[in-house]
Amino acid sequence: MASLGQIIFWSIISSIIVLAGAIALIIGFGISGTHSITVTTLTSAGNIGEDGILSCTFEPDIKLSDIVIQWLKEGVTGLVHEFKEGKDDLSDQNEMFRGRTAVFADQVRVGNASLRLKNVRLTDAGTYKCYVLTANGKGNAGLEYKTGAFSIPEMDVDYNASSESFRCEAPRWFPQPTVVWTSQADLRANFSQVSNTSFELNSENVTMKVVSILYNVTINNTYSCMIENDLAKATGDIKVTGGFLHSFCMGLLG
Ligand SMILES: *[C@@H]1O[C@H](CO)[C@@H](O)[C@H](O)[C@H]1NC(C)=O
Ligand SMILES: *[C@@H]1O[C@H](CO)[C@@H](O)[C@H](O)[C@H]1NC(C)=O
Ligand SMILES: *[C@@H]1O[C@H](CO)[C@@H](O)[C@H](O)[C@H]1NC(C)=O
Ligand SMILES: *[C@@H]1O[C@H](CO)[C@@H](O)[C@H](O)[C@H]1NC(C)=O
Ligand SMILES: *[C@@H]1O[C@H](CO)[C@@H](O)[C@H](O)[C@H]1NC(C)=O
Ligand SMILES: *[C@@H]1O[C@H](CO)[C@@H](O)[C@H](O)[C@H]1NC(C)=O
Ligand SMILES: *[C@@H]1O[C@H](CO)[C@@H](O)[C@H](O)[C@H]1NC(C)=O
């Protein structure tokens, strides 16, 4: 037999549950009342001087003429880009983006609202918002865009050094990366005492050339030079077998 106390307790619990359900329902109706659609962004990094993509997708809608895409950047007046009625509308575009933006017009129909940004600048870094309106509703998503420089290293024997040495050189990095050498023969080996890394500012005074020399290498062993900053990571591998040089590059960028 349940005591009166238990009955009151359970009835309070069940009324809380019913109330919660009702509130959830009201909120649910509220949201569907404003017709929200799912918009998804993907974070990526921009390489200064190259073209970048700010990735954004949404629930597709066959009626292209009803789709409005707006790209906004925090702290920037006007728009980064606007696409509506099947074409670009750049009447309210901020001048820092003039001539540098495009959506993939043929991909909009399938839910691709990604923005192509030409000639990425360091100052393009920031918080962007991808806003999409379709006949089904509207939605938006933010994305943090980082900018810098990264490049794949070239590996070679350093013919200038007195001992058998390898050279890892990458033309453009920013911010200053770390360079770590590893050996396939001994994955835990620490080469910080037998390598020397230098950074040389390029003529545009932002990006730097990275050169790292690894001294006293042994034959038949594969060495990797890994360059990394908070935007990207790139690796180059090199091996010498009795006079034959094998260098192969692997890049893992962005
Ligand atoms: C959008 O389309 C462009 C061009 O085809 C493509 O490069 C990009 O990966 C697409 N983005 C998504 C998220 O599908
Ligand atoms: C080779 O070493 C000499 C002496 O240290 C130096 O002056 C020269 O610049 C080096 N050359 C290269 C290509 O690193
Ligand atoms: C390698 O050794 C140096 C000091 O000689 C140290 O600062 C560094 O953290 C070590 N690196 C690794 C990956 O253990
Ligand atoms: C390379 O090896 C030689 C001979 O073992 C040694 O004298 C030299 O100090 C080594 N160089 C470095 C950078 O460790
Ligand atoms: C590293 O390179 C710099 C400049 O080329 C040179 O001054 C320094 O002595 C080198 N350090 C080592 C440990 O070889
Ligand atoms: C780079 O900096 C140097 C020295 O600070 C200066 O003389 C040069 O004009 C700068 N170059 C550019 C492209 O800003
Ligand atoms: C390197 O490998 C080749 C072929 O696998 C072998 O003939 C040679 O003796 C090796 N050299 C060293 C120094 O281990």
Automatic annotation (TrEMBL):
Leader sequence segment: none
GO biological process: adaptive immune response; negative regulation of T cell activation; regulation of cytokine production; regulation of T cell proliferation; T cell receptor signaling pathway
Compartments, as annotated in UniProt: Cell membrane
Transmembrane segments: 7-31
Record domain Ig-like: where: 49-132, 153-241
UniProt xrefs under CDD domains: IgV_B7-H4
Keyword annotations of the record: Adaptive immunity, Cell membrane, Disulfide bond, Glycoprotein, Immunity, Immunoglobulin domain, Lipoprotein, Membrane, Repeat, Signal, Transmembrane, Transmembrane helix
Primary localization: membrane
Cited InterPro entries: Ig-like_dom, Ig-like_dom_sf, Ig-like_fold, Ig_V-set, IgSF_BTN/MOG
GO CC annotations, alphabetized: external side of plasma membrane
Superkingdom field: Eukaryota
Gene Ontology molecular functions: signaling receptor binding
Family: Belongs to the immunoglobulin superfamily. BTN/MOG family.
Free-text function comment from the UniProt entry: Negatively regulates T-cell-mediated immune response by inhibiting T-cell activation, proliferation, cytokine production and development of cytotoxicity. When expressed on the cell surface of tumor macrophages, plays an important role, together with regulatory T-cells (Treg), in the suppression of tumor-associated antigen-specific T-cell immunity. Involved in promoting epithelial cell transformation.
PANTHER family: BUTYROPHILIN, V-SET DOMAIN-CONTAINING T-CELL ACTIVATION INHIBITOR 1
Name recorded for this polypeptide: V-set domain-containing T-cell activation inhibitor 1
Organism: Pteropus vampyrus
Gene: VTCN1
